[in-house]
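One-letter codes give the sequence; the integers encode the fold. A sample entry reads:
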Amino acid sequence: MKRYGMVINVKPGMAGEYKRLHADVWPDVLKAITESNIKNYSIYFKDNQLFSYFEYVGNDYDADMKKMAANPVVQDWWNKCIPLLQPLPNLAEGEVWANMEEVFHMD
């Protein structure tokens, strides 16, 4: 299992819409997340910034993320969410959410 933390900004004035969408995530999106070996997934909001945390329990993260990205329902969901977001500068190629380095963990 590998833990992931990511961060992104919400565009000014778009926090309410982002929260509204995530109050009722589409069942097929949740299914795609689960089928991509993601567990214990949370998104937190503070001052127009989002922090996400999840645990990846699969064996091939890149393949699982490509499979999820190819899902038409996930693509429709992202088409609703991504316009509300403002990525951080200096992202790695292909990133929308900025991956964070884990510097401490305690079970």
